[in-house]
Each structure stands twice: as C-alpha cells, then as structure tokens.
Design a protein that fits this description.
heterodimer; A: about 550 residues; alpha/beta; Rossmann fold; six-stranded mixed β-sheet; B: about 350 residues; mainly alpha; MetI-like fold; globular
C-alpha cells in the first residue's frame, strides 16, 4: 500500500532566548491513501507541532533540524516557498480545534471563506469571480449540513453557535477538496452531543470523498470511532503505533496502558459505584427559578429564564453531580447555592439556614467554597502559592504564625511538597495548579465544596489523580461535593447522586447506577448515547435513541 | 436575543447628558469656592463697596446658591454663559470667535496622529525587534515623555534657524483676504471659496503647532497599536488563515489591522482630553489666538465666567469626540452592535 503522507526521522526544535529544546525527536508516521490515522498524546507531547510542521505553519523560532515529510512521494520540506504555499488548503487542509477563537470577530464568516478560496484559486492559476466563489462556498456549507448557507455566509462569528462555527471550520478545510484532512481535536471545545455530530460528519465526509485523515486528539473514545491506525506520542517521540484494535487490546508500553486505564468507563465491570448516602440534607432547593433581565433604558426588556422550578436536595457527605450541556443552567444553580446571585423565585437552604438571609457573610463563606474549571486563570499569576493560600486564611482571622502552619497543612492535604509554597503558578503543571486551587477552597475549612468542571482542562491521566485526591479528601474531612460537569463517564464513577439539566430544568435525577442503566428522559438517553466510549460492549449497553428524539432535544443535530 | 444599535446609542446619549450635568455642577461649585468676589474682579480694585454691591445684585449673586446654579444651567443650555468679568462682552461671543481656530488645530492634530501612529504601530509590530521596531519605540517614548511645549519651542527654533520661509506664528498670513464663513475653519472655508492661497498659508501655519500637539498622542497610539497587533497575531484566527495560505499582507493589513484598531481608537477618545490641555500651552507658544489660549488667559485673570464656559465647552467636545468614536467602534466591531443578552 502506498503512503499518501510519509514522515521519517523528523526532528524539530524550538529556540527560546538562546536555549534549544527538541520538541520532536525522530518522529515517523505513515498515512496510507484513504486511511484514517490518529495521533494521540497529552498536552505538550508534540502532536500539534507535528501537524504544524506538515502544514508549514510553525512559529518563527522553530527549526526543522532533519527528516523528511513526503506527500505523494515528494518531500514538502525541500519544496520552494511558493509551491509549499500552494499545497495549503488544496493538497492538505486542517480543521482547527477551537471553533470559538478561530474566526476574526470583526469580519463576516463569508469574508474568511472567500479570502481562503480566492487566494488558493489564485495560487492554482484559476480565475474566479466573487459570485462564482460565493456559489461554490454555499455548496460546501450545505455539504457540512449548514442548511441556511446564505445566512451563515453573511453572519459574524459571534452570531453562530459553537457547533455551527465548527462546521464552518470543516467547510473551510473542504473548499478545495484536499487529499489529506488534518483534524486537530475537532469538537473537543463543544458539548458532547455536538461533538458526536461533528465526528459523524467528518467520518462521512472522509468516506464520501475518499480523503485521508490525520486525527490529532487526546480523547481515546473519539479515536475508536475515527481511526484505523494509532500513533501514541509522548515527549516528542512516537512511543507506540499499530492498528487500533491491537493498541486498544494489547498495549505494549506502560504509557499507553496508563492512558487507557485512566479513562473512566461508562458501562461494564470496571465501573465504580459510589455508595448512596443516607443523611440529613445539607443543601436543599425548592422550586427555585432565576431569570435574567436585559436592562434597557426605555421600554420593556426581555427576560431570559435560566433556571426553572428546580428542586433538589443534597445530603451531607454526598457527591452530588449536576450534569448538562453549556447553557443548561447548572452554573447558575451553583452560583445561587453559593449566595453569589439571588434566585428570582423559590427558597434555598444551606446547612439549615436560608441562603438569602446570610448569603455573603463570613460565616457563610466558611461553609461553602468553590474550585473553578480552569486553574490557569483562577490563580493570580503574580502571586506565589503561599500568597494565594494566605488570603482566605487572613480573611478567616488567623495570625501570621498560624497562617504559615495551616498552609503547610493544606499543601499536605493536596499532596504537594512544602517547598511549593514559594512557587508561582507558571512553574506548576495543570494538575498541580488545580491542587493549589483545591487547597485554597479547603483553607476556610468548609463543609461543602462546589466543583465546577474541575478536571475538564486537564489531561485524562491527571484527571484521574485529581479525582482520587478529591475522593480521599471527602473521606478524610467529611466534605460534601456539588460536582458540576458535562463529562458523563466521569460522573458515572465519581458521583453518588446525579441530576441532569436541560434548558434550566432538572429532567432526571437519581443514583448513577439507575440513571445510566435505565434513563427515563429522552434527553438523558441522547446525552449518554453521545459519550465516546472505549469498547463495543459499552456501545451496546448505551441507551438507544431515535433521530427524532435527538432532533427534539439537541440544538446542533443536523437535519 | 439582541440589543438594537439605536437603543445602545440612546443609552450613550443619556450618559452624555449626565456627564455634562456633573461637569457643570463641579465647575460651578469650584467657581464659588475659589477666593475672590466675581463682582470685585469685574470692577477692579478702585470700585467702591457700593458699586460692588450693585454689581452683585446685577449678576444675581444675592440669590441662593441652588437658584444661581439652576439659572446658570438654564442659560448655559441656551448658550449664554454671562459676561466676561474682564472685557464685559458676552463670553459666548468671545468663544464663538476663537473656537474654530482651536477646532481646526485639534482636528488636524487628530488626523496627523492617526496617519502617523497606526502605520508606525503596524510596522513596528510586523518587524518586531528589528531596527524599525527599536527606532519606532524610541520615537514613541520620546513623544510620550517630552512635554508638548518643549516640542513647540524646539520646532520654532528649528524653523527659525533652518526653514526661514516657514511661518511659526499665527494661524494664517493675515495680509491675505480671509474667506468669510461658513465654518470658521480656514482649510474648509478656503476650499469652499476656492481660495488656494489662503488654503496653502493656513496649511503651512498648521504644520508646526499640530506636530507639537500630536507628538504625545503619536507616541501613545503607536505603542497601543503595536501591542494590539502583536497580541492578535498569536490568536487562532490568524493561524487559521495562515494554514490555508492566505498571504501575510492580507492577514496583516486587512484582518489584523481592523481588529487592532479598536484599542487605539478607544484610547484616542481619552487622548482628546490631554489634547485640549496641551493646546492651552501650544497655542500660546505659536500665538495661535484660539479658544485654548483664551482659556489660559481667563484663568490667569480670574475671569470666572469665562473659565466656566471654557471648561464646559471643552467638556462638551470631549464627550462629543467620544460619542463619535463609539459610533466608529460600533461600525468596526459587530460585537458592540449586536450585544448578546447576558
């Protein structure tokens, strides 16, 4: 079988302030004509650098030290600049990762598409006029299942949903019918149901048009659906490669094994059941609604109902999972429980007292704390770990000596060495930063911690460690967790109770075991069905959904 | 759910009225707090106490403070700021005669700032850390740090020594027949009347004062443009276009420039305040005979009515300039036009 793309002994290094660091070491990778290859690895493993080297969009401080990248037999690294440019978007195209940031916000979607098409036409020596290009663009937009192509063409990026923008990014890659499609974590920034639709779309486009696919991802569940061959990358090296089935069944390298083991299963014998907690409720909501008013100067503003008649009760010591997609109102519920915003209707009680009456006071703050999603932005980059942790402690009225002692205690709780006290956030890895954020939440000795997607910014192997830590802390300190997430397989294993939200309402709640075994609401079924899993057995155990059900509850389902 | 652009504009206009109200209240209170009796200032040291009392009555200074203020606002809205304590003429007439000179200077300065600093900012960002960047950065630091009166004097010295043909004082060659109306801006009026001699002379006279006035703004706006360009260069959307082979010049001059003009334009609105402040001095150096040097004289002579009017008129133009910039930004940035709810 001939290879469409053949990378051999590729070495790439970056130069920063005179220091040279090897980012890719002897990378070798083959993509057969019409084949689907996945490149997997964690953050910083060199996956994206590989794709940028193929495309020729490496930053200025990167140097290709040695190696060859043969595309259809020709080494692209030795091609002239002009020929290289001409291959972009025509021989190979990339589907960018983040649909939200990949468009210039002050230009219309059509402007982006037209410029890309116009300049690649010009490089190929083809003449085209704008009406003709517009016709071709709208055709491709329909191909990616954007039915209202004209509206999309004239829209600004901020007027389209994430799923729609992701489709436009795919259209961008298909404008010139390339032979190789490089997909850099497509859809991972989106909700799981949207991601599922996007994956199906890419798969269909690849098989319909006979394209080859290089899939770059860290999500092994996605890989299972979208690749035939796998390359596992770590620290800039390919540590293992082979057919998908072989790698999944009999991984050779410890690293690959750990990657696979770190993924929480959705069904099957590996699933952990958290014991249901029988205790008095510590948080209770009865018929809570929240509407946001749009303030206008004159006339009546619109009001938007974010949370609608939610009643729930969290028992002491429970890990209560609140699941839902973006915009479902789960964060609004958490913020009301924390007393940060007031409900429009209904009553919230935390630890026996109504939140409205003491919300915001120091006693209440000591009761409930939060860990945010992204530790990279929730920690002040100008403060050391010690300074960050001392803020809540001083607020709680501790003296300098006691603060120092308590910080060491907190670091021990989250399993960080004492010398981390003088480190700045940029010196820490993502997992370590999240540990600091957890320590900060623990500082006031709370009874309840709200975990707002605490692991979604982390790699799976790190996620596992953080989850283990959280479990240990709950047992040791007798905490109650309110766990907000869209990651259902994680929630299946970690939560003792789960509630699923859709458009501001709780549509289903119960013990995970029941909810996953026999979901009642069609939305829950659609949500669970969309979760990428690791084996056919798990796929078979998933609830069945019909296209009508999906279309009814999921915004981005293609018609 | 989307907010209507007209609604947003209406909000801005109400804010505008609020700013003017607060400004008028502040300047009114300040004028009553500073030592010195307006009536006494108007009449001079030789007037008798009897005359001063009569003057106070005439000026309405015997009324309660709130009534004085209400009266002041009511007349101010109609463009009546009372009489100058020094010349005895209507302050509004004096300002109307001098305002066009300053407006002309300020508008030309703003255009000069935009014309120089945006391209300079783009170039320094594009050739980052090269000699162009270093020279540009040096130039902008000098511009920001050196006071504008120093530039004014330096430019005058240079012109006097090396460019003896170039005028360094006044607005125009006053021996020419100046066009009459309609705007009072010489550049515009001379074009309207087709008088190219006056146009040339006015333009020549404008060169040095506007350069002196523009330096600080050029320095600041260049730096902001540069950092906005550099920041946006790293964004994913630039990488998207690069990955599909859209040429560099298109990315820089179309995509990046429009996006990066938002920050400098916003700052431009704030810059307007210091521009008026600096004009007070620059006009004096170049004997410009504008509204700003009138303000400076009024301050020195404690002509309270004139000072209050000057502050209000400067405030008015500051707010109008920011309103214009808001509109321009709304044209550039769709996110401001169609604000999503929440």
């Amino acid at each position: 079988m001939t290879s469409l793309l053949d990378i051999q002994n590729l070495n790439v290094s970056f130069r920063n302030y005179g220091l040279r660091s090897n980012v890719l070491k002897d990378v070798g990778l083959k993509i057969p004509e019409g084949g689907r290859v996945a490149l997997i690895g964690e953050t910083g493993s060199g996956k994206s650098v590989t794709s940028k080297t193929i495309l020729g969009t490496l930053p200025d401080n990167a140097v290709v030290e040695s190696g060859t990248i043969r595309f259809d037999g020709e080494d692209v690294l030795t091609l002239s600049q002009g020929k290289r440019e001409a291959m972009k978007g025509t021989a190979f195209s990339i589907i960018m990762q983040d649909p939200l940031s990949s468009f210039n916000p002050v230009f219309r979607i059509g402007r982006h598409l037209d410029d890309v098409l116009r300049f690649s036409d010009r490089r190929l020596g083809e003449r085209s006029n704008s009406a003709d290009r517009r016709r071709r663009i709208e055709q491709v937009l329909r191909q990616v299942q954007l039915s209202d192509a004209e509206r999309v063409f004239d829209a600004y990026p901020s007027q389209l949903s994430g799923g729609m923008r992701q489709r436009v990014l795919i259209a961008l890659a298909l404008l010139h019918q390339p032979r190789l499609l490089i997909a850099d974590e497509p859809g991972t920034a989106l909700d799981v149901t949207t991601q599922d639709e996007i994956m199906k779309l890419i798969n269909r486009l690849v098989s319909d048009n006979g394209l080859s696919l290089l899939m770059i991802t860290h999500n092994l569940g996605v890989v299972r659906k979208m690749a035939d061959d796998i390359y596992v990358m770590r620290h800039g090296e390919i540590v293992e490669h082979g057919p998908l089935k072989t790698i999944f069944r009999t991984p050779q390298q410890a690293y690959t094994k750990a990657l696979i083991a770190a993924i929480p299963p959705l069904y099957g014998p590996g699933v952990e059941d958290q014991e249901a907690v029988e205790a008095e409720p510590i948080i209770s909501l009865s018929d809570v609604s929240k509407s946001f008013d749009e303030k206008l100067l004159f006339g009546r503003g619109h009001s938007h109902l974010a949370v609608k008649d939610v009643s729930l009760s969290v028992s002491k010591g429970e890990i209560f999972g609140l699941a839902g997609e973006s915009g479902s109102g789960k964060t609004t519920v958490a913020r009301m429980i924390m007393g940060l915003i007031r409900p429009t209707r209904g009553a919230i009680a935390v630890d026996g007292d109504a939140v409205g009456e003491k919300g915001g006071g120091p006693d209440f703050r000591k009761l409930i704390q939060i860990v945010y999603q992204n530790p990279g932005t929730s920690l002040n980059p100008k403060r050391t770990v010690g300074q960050t942790l001392s803020v809540p402690l001083r607020f709680a009225g501790l003296k300098a000596g006691a603060v120092e002692k308590r910080i060491h205690e907190l670091l021990a709780h989250v399993e960080l060495q004492p010398h981390y006290i003088s480190k700045y956030p940029h010196e820490l890895s993502g997992g370590q930063k999240q540990r600091v954020a957890i320590a900060r939440a623990l500082a006031a000795d709370p009874k309840i911690i709200v975990l707002d997607e605490p692991t979604s910014a982390l790699d799976v192997s790190v996620q596992k460690n953080v989850i283990d830590l959280l479990q240990k802390l709950r047992d040791e300190l007798g905490l109650t967790f309110l766990f907000i997430s869209h990651d259902l397989s994680l929630m299946r294993n970690f939560c003792s109770h789960i509630a699923i939200m859709l458009r501001g309402e709780v549509v289903e709640a119960g013990e995970p075991r029941q909810v996953f075994a026999d979901p009642q609401h069609p939305y829950t079924r659609a949500l669970i069905a969309a979760v990428p899993v690791m084996s056919d057995e798990e796929d078979r155990l998933k609830p069945k959904t019909s296209i009508e059900e999906r279309r009814r509850y999921l915004a981005d389902t293609a018609v | 759910m989307q907010t209507n652009p007209a609604q947003l504009m209406l909000k801005r206009l109400v804010g505008f009225a609020g700013v003017m109200f607060v400004l008028s209240a502040m300047i009114f209170i300040l004028a009553r707090i500073v030592p010195g009796d307006p009536a006494r200032i108007a009449l001079g040291p030789s007037a008798t106490q009897q005359q001063v009392e009569e003057m106070r009555l005439e000026m309405g200074l015997d009324a309660p403070l709130w009534q004085q203020y209400a009266d002041y606002v009511w007349r101010g809205v109609q463009g009546d700021f009372g009489k100058s304590l020094i010349s005895g003429r209507q302050v509004s007439d004096e300002i109307a005669a001098l305002l066009p000179a300053t407006l002309e200077l300020v508008i030309v300065t703003v255009l000069l700032i935009i014309a120089v600093s945006i391209p300079l900012g783009v170039m320094t960002a594009r050739y980052r850390n090269s000699w162009i960047d270093n020279a540009g950065r040096f130039f902008s630091i000098v511009g920001v740090t050196m006071p504008s009166f120093l530039f004014a004097i330096l430019l005058q010295l240079i012109a006097a020594n090396f460019l003896s043909d170039w005028p360094v004082l006044g607005r125009v060659n006053y021996s020419l027949d100046l066009p009459d109306g309609p705007t009072g801006l010489l550049l515009v009026d001379s074009v309207v009347h087709g008088d190219w001699q006056v146009f040339r002379s006015a333009l020549q006279h404008l060169i040095f004062p506007s350069m002196a006035l523009a330096m600080a703004g050029i320095g600041q706006i260049t730096r902001i443009t540069r950092s906005a360009m550099i920041e946006h260069q790293r964004r994913d959307h630039v990488l998207t276009l690069k990955s599909f082979g859209v040429p560099d010049r298109v990315i820089v001059f179309r995509y990046l420039l429009k996006l990066s003009s938002i920050a400098p334009l916003t700052i431009m609105g704030l810059e307007f305040a210091s521009l008026i402040g600096n004009a007070f001095v620059v006009e004096l150096v170049f004997s410009w005979g504008g509204f700003a040097s009138y303000g400076l004289e009024s301050i020195l002579q404690k002509d309270l009515n004139a000072v209050m009017a000057v502050v209000l008129v400067s405030g008015f133009f500051f707010v109008v300039a920011n309103l214009v910039i808001d509109i321009v930004l709304m044209v550039i940035d769709p996110r401001l036009r169609f604000k999503e709810a929440n």
